Amino acid sequence: MSAQIASILGLVVMFVVATALPINMGALGFAAAFLVGQVFVGMSATQILAGFPGDLFVTLVGITYLFAIAQNNGTVDWLVHYAVRLVGGRISVIPWVMFAVSAVLTAIGAVSPGAVAIIAPIALRFAARYRIHPMLMGLMVVHGAQGGGFSPISIYGGITNQVVKNAGLPGDEIVLFLSSLAFNAAVALVIFFVFGGHRLPVRRPSEDFEGLVDAVPAGASVPVSGHGGTPARPAAPRPGAVHREGEDHHVALDREQALTLTGLVVLAVASLAFNLNVGLVAMSVAVVLALVCPRGQKGAVDKISWSTVLLIGGVITYIGVLQKAGAVDYVGGGVSTMAAPLLGALLLCYVAGVVSAFASSVAVLGATIPLAVPLLMQGHLGVPGMVAAIAISTTIVDVSPFSTNGALVVANAHGIDRDAFFRQMLIYSGIVVLVGPLLAWLALVVPGLL
């Protein structure tokens, strides 16, 4: 059996076993990487472990650690409070705000995982507070980041346009940007209705509580209404506190919250404006907060999503073995030499989508577009449309829990069964892998032949 076939079969076996048995797929990934890598590919242990995603590991641990501290000391509650106030208490508007902010950040040059790392923890905490489906909030953040990700000044846009230029193809930067933005906005609209965004309440939480709190003596308990009702709570919180069950007029920051908010600003500026590693910056900010305010970090390390870290690390390590075995080039090379350009274009979109669901989108973009050159040189397909279709197919699947963006969403989900949520994300990403490349091909490649 060839190394390419063995590595592909190993991936299939991993999914089947993890689906049938309650075994962490990351553990299976490490075992499969060792067996397939050494037996069929001839890799040493050092070469196998070179595929471990150290950058993603630090990002997941650093971000979840930092936001665990921010959750402990009430900073996230404060941010959620003001998010509600900024939109006039209209809860149904918040998912679109998250989409828009993520899109703007990537459009002006932020790397997609960096934008998601900043926005997703706040968005998912907001979802937990107001019982918004976490899939809705998480997916709106990711699709927003991908929607703005191909502007002419963005990371993805710059890489794609450079690859097209180096291949000697006539690209169109505006078509690429608008195609990605429109496609992801359309997907976001479907997500909004499927996961109940249109049924979210329009209310002003601060108005619900201010009068009631002022009318009750200090230390008394009052019932708090909400989605399905919540237990009674004390009417007079400590100065600077923000209630977890509702919104009131006590929104002043205490010392720990002010320092944490400053740390989050530093994280945003350092990672988005100066392009520093978001995981290392988050870890550094978290350590400083732990030193300055040691009580606020109590139990924060336990809230790091270690099962998610194991899962992502093991699977991506195995994907490194699969790539080293030449499986991606094996499949992509066969597609690019097909005689039927239209069918070849569709299959190339699928290759880009499937591989990118597990690997770096930047790497897949750089490898897949050159594979399309033989098809485009035949003159039957429009270059801007084909490039945009590959770009969308490559990045639309970044909702996968095995990608950085999807992993950040899973790791920051609150108040739910994380394993069940992971399966929901996996099912959704499977649907996207099956349908996304086809829709991109229909919308952007097929019209070029008409």
From TrEMBL:
Biased amino acid composition, Low complexity: 230-240
Domain Dicarboxylate carrier MatC N-terminal: start-end pairs: 1-149
Entry keyword set: Membrane, Transmembrane, Transmembrane helix
Membrane spanning stretches: 56-73, 93-124, 136-159, 174-195, 264-292, 304-321, 342-367, 425-446
Origin: domain of life: Bacteria
Record InterPro entries: CitT-rel (IPR030676), MatC_N (IPR009827)
Sequence segments annotated as region (Disordered): 224-245
Protein name: Dicarboxylate carrier MatC N-terminal domain-containing protein
Organism: Inquilinus limosus
